[in-house]
Amino acid sequence: MANKPTHSQNVETIDEEANMTIISRSAIIHALRSNPLAVEKAILILYEGQTADEKVLRGTHHDNRKGFNTAHAKLGSYYAKWILSGKKLTSHHLAKAREIAIYYAGTQLLQAAKEKQKIKRERTQDAILSARISLRDPFQKTVGVAWLNGRG
């Protein structure tokens, strides 16, 4: 017969790494190939990396390894502006945008996905901490991490 777990064994442990999806170049490529919305988001992420003058001129003028490279800048910027106007990419435009996005899957898009995951992990940890605090002090309903850090 199995031993009954003690109270300390019943306490939920938090393993944020186990709860997070592993992000890789192949996972990003899979998303880009299977989801048109992922392609549009990728184009916008790359466009955000363009400097202000590159956005205006629809080209690459700074060697900063952000945004589109010279070969993709004109068409990538065009697609980004199309998407930002509220329109969807379709047909051969979607296919070309997908090719562009896949080119950056192992670099800028992977970095952006990991940064997003890190922020999500931090927010989850903040929410867990806030929940634990409210369980200890039921009269303090709005306690948050900002309060703990002296900002509340």
Tell me what you see in this structure.
This protein is mostly helical and 152 residues long. The chain has 2 domains: 24-106, no CATH class; 113-152. The chain is 64% helix and 0% strand. The protein has 9 helices and no strands. Helix 3 (25-34) crosses helix 4 (36-48), helix 4 (36-48) crosses helix 6 (70-84) and helix 4 (36-48) crosses helix 7. The longest helix has 29 residues, at 108-136. The chain is elongated and about 55 Å long. Mean pLDDT is 79; it is low at 4-18.
Total beta strands: 0
Structural class: mainly alpha
**Per the principal axes of the C-alpha atoms, what is the gross shape?**
elongated
Q: SSE order, as H and E?
A: HHHHHHHHH
The level of helicity is: 55-70%
Radius of gyration: 22 Å
Amino-to-carboxy terminus distance:
50 Å
Domain count: 2
Percentage of residues in strands: under 5%
Q: What is the number of helical segments per DSSP (H or I, 4+ residues)?
A: 9
Assembly level: single chain
Poorly predicted parts = 4-18
Task: State the gist of this model.
This protein is mostly helical and 152 residues long. Helix content is 64%, strand content 0%. It folds into two domains: 24-106, no CATH class; 113-152.
List keywords for this structure.
152 residues; mainly alpha; 9 helices; 64% helix
Helix/strand layout:
Elements: H1 7-10, H2 16-19, H3 25-34, H4 36-48, H5 52-57, H6 70-84, H7 91-103, H8 108-136, H9 145-148
Helix pairs in contact: 3-4, 4-6, 4-7
